[in-house]
Specification:
single chain, about 15% helix, flat, 4-stranded antiparallel β-sheet, binds 2-acetamido-2-deoxy-beta-D-glucopyranose, Immunoglobulin-like
Length: about 240
Amino acid sequence: MLHLAFAALGSLHLLTSVSAQTWCNKNYMSSQPVVPPGGNFPMAAPSADPLLAFRCAAAMKPYLEEDVGTPAGVLVDSPVVYSVISGAEPIDLPSGPLSSAGNLDVTVSLNGKTLAKALVPLNASAYELPFSLNGITPQMTPYNLSCEATYLATNSAASSSSTQTYSASAALSVLPNPTNSSVTKMDLRTGALLARPATGLGGEYEPIFPIGFYTTFDGYLSTNLSAIDILKEQG
Ligand SMILES: *[C@@H]1O[C@H](CO)[C@@H](O)[C@H](O)[C@H]1NC(C)=O
Ligand SMILES: *[C@@H]1O[C@H](CO)[C@@H](O)[C@H](O)[C@H]1NC(C)=O
Ligand SMILES: *[C@@H]1O[C@H](CO)[C@@H](O)[C@H](O)[C@H]1NC(C)=O
Ligand SMILES: *[C@@H]1O[C@H](CO)[C@@H](O)[C@H](O)[C@H]1NC(C)=O
């Protein structure tokens, strides 16, 4: 059945490429004219004043019941931008460099209970706040973390007199241990996918190299695996 599906797709692919010479609806041969493919992301509107795009996310997706008792983390982003990007809100900054403009006092909570509280610099990326999963009951539906930030300006006279607060939320998955299946985790600190060894004999979660159609195109990984290290070096 699976073979049949692939055969059908294969011949469909041949037919379209022979008749139209496009891949994924795009010209791909050097002899073909350049056709703007469209579908560009819209440019964010510029902002004359600084904006803070406060965001948070669980460091690992998902956490498992067996992770309760080991440290967990929430990642906080605090980019200061001059573009109207998603979630960006005005921030009244003192003059001078951002590095001396103060911090955000960030509190992460779940159903009103504080899990983590720390100062986070402005314009940080994936700044990790550790927290404990103790007391969080594993369940199939994700929890909703609430992240609140209050801007503590170094020179309050230079910035607005009113308190500047920002909020964001993030899904936190704490799943029951799998009984009849395996789990692939996403480590948001690095973007790596983690899995246990495929031997079925257990072992630690380790980064895996996902292989898809283009990863092995023309079979180039079959004879020489050093490309994987090169890709790793390139991030
Ligand atoms: C924030 O950090 C980014 C990346 O490091 C940098 O390009 C940008 O200039 C910084 N923003 C401000 C307002 O300093
Ligand atoms: C999570 O909670 C925030 C408020 O703290 C709410 O705005 C958001 O819609 C909630 N998200 C989900 C998926 O329930
Ligand atoms: C695997 O386990 C889950 C959770 O106990 C259950 O809902 C599901 O039906 C099981 N699947 C199979 C194929 O046994
Ligand atoms: C493997 O590929 C790398 C570059 O991708 C190349 O530098 C190296 O010489 C190749 N090794 C062999 C044995 O072909």
